[in-house]
Amino acid sequence: LQRDAKGQYLFDLLCHHLNLLEKDYFGIRFVDPDKQRHWLEFTKSVVKQMRAQPPFTMCFRVKFYPTDPAALKEEITRYLVFLQIKRDLYHGRLLCKTSDAALLAAYILQAEIGDYDPGKHPEGYSSKFQFFPKHSEKLERKIAEIHKSELSGQTPATSELNFLRKAQTLETYGVDPHPCKDVSGNAAFLAFTPFGFVVLQGNKRVHFIKWNEVTKMKFEGKTFYLYVSQKEEKKIVLTYFAPTPEACKHLWKCGIENQAFYKLEKSSQVRTVSSSNLFFKGSRFRYSGRVAKEVMESSAKIKREPPEIHRAGLVPSRSCPSITHGPRLSSVPRTRRRAVHISIMEGRLLPSRGCQRRMPWEEGLAKGKERLWSCPRGWGRAGGCGCAAGGADFPGDSGVPPPVTRRFLPPEGLRGQPCPGTAPDPGPGPGMRAGTGTAQQVNKFLLSVLRLLLVTVGLLFVLLLLLIVLTESDLDTAFFRDIRQTPEFEQFHYQYFCPLRRWFACKLRAVVNLLIDT
């Protein structure tokens, strides 16, 4: 990547490679050195958003879950969403009853291995697949029973569609949990879904607030506030505490983006939101994408031949825990598919056949392999679905392996960048990195000075207004009367303020006369 390449460039390049047009539902997520996850902002430079040194590891996953995934226009989009929800099911983010779990797993089985064949599928064949954090023999027998008797004849596309329709009806559909604590100190998980704001404690949903009831979201330090206006003008403020200020800010930004995407009618209605009521304090953020209604209208206009889809089996991550804190299970091996160029589930880009240059981030993955796969049990400190660096999909939560086998060709407007067959850019050296660090420190200092200057000017302006009110207004309150009767104020008023006012009025009169004469 060029140093000034925006996040939109990288995202468009990836979606072009996947032949994906309904791309507004997806995003790129990464984890910083402090183990805090972030969504890549498309309007900013990729390199400037990364606080770590290259190579950078990012994950492509669903950012905004479709309100009705079965209504998506193209099969390739439904397939990618299917992979994400299947991964949510495996990591315990999609909670459901045993009967629903068996049906969902049977749909996955039908989509991956087809109809039941006694010659190929011996007794206990469903136990070789891992669909959930925890398995039991009874559940495995139920899955196999549904697969044998109820789903025969369904194509992979039909099974995936039925899977999406069933998953959409569950309470935790679209949940991407953020660990927090309530005012009593009890652990909770906050999440934003297509239908509203959700609070989970244990395996139960304790709060559900529709998007049209959410009036405001803000944060201060580690504290997150949600302002709710319900029926009969009943107003509620929910307060939660995130593990770190960075995690709280990420939670706030996710809430702002989700509310804008699902609630607004047009992207022109999006406004810049501040985390504080004071103009010189807090963070400011603005959602930069399209809203759900615009995305659906745009999808309806797609007219092209359906792209070819190459389905692949799921490789469960060994590093991502779940809401249920279930034990991790070993991965199910799958065969290597030569046609797949981007192995998003592994968090890296594989060069196409004929490309001899090794991708720079593959070397970083090789060096940091042990770090990537050594996540402790439980949630990450920064508030994600726990990965090696504290994020939900680092590297195991992307859930969307590449479905399309196509040679790499950048889209129009993105060409001219170095590609895998060309010589690599040597990149910045140590001196340049040191200079960048110094420049960042200088920018922070200048920003602090500017903020102090703004505060000082604001205070002076307030004092000036108060002085004008004291000297020129007819307000006769006890407070103003006591100040006007002091000897110091009378001396200031007659010796300084009155002469200054006469001088200013004279100069103003002279300027007006000059303009009239001209």
CATH homology-level superfamily of the domain at 178-301: Pleckstrin-homology domain (PH domain)/Phosphotyrosine-binding domain (PTB)
**Cα shape:** elongated
Helical fraction: 25-40%
Trace the largest sheet across and list its strands.
Answer: 7-6-5-4-10-9-8
Taking pLDDT < 50 over at least 5 consecutive residues as the criterion, the unreliable ranges are: 314-428
The residue-averaged pLDDT reads: 77
Region (Disordered): 409-429
Domain FERM: 1-266
Pfam family, one: FERM_M
Transmembrane segments: 449-471
Describe the structure.
The protein has helices at residues 7-17, 46-49, 75-90, 98-113, 137-149, 156-168, 245-263, 292-300, 360-367, 369-372, 430-472, 478-484, 487-517; strands at residues 26-31, 37-39, 58-62, 178-182, 187-193, 196-201, 204-210, 214-220, 223-230, 234-241, 273-274, 284-285, 342-343, 348-349. By secondary structure, the protein is of the alpha+beta class. Among the domains are: 7-62, Ubiquitin-like (UB roll); 69-94 and 96-168, Up-down Bundle (Acyl-CoA Binding Protein), CATH 1.20.80.10; 178-301, PH-domain like (Roll), CATH 2.30.29; 461-500, no CATH class. A hairpin with a 2-residue loop joins strand 6 and strand 7 (204-210). Helix 3 (75-90) packs across helix 6, helix 4 packs across helix 5 (137-149) and helix 4 packs antiparallel against helix 6 (156-168). The longest helix is centred in the last third of the chain and has 43 residues, at 430-472. Mean pLDDT is 77; it is low at 314-428.
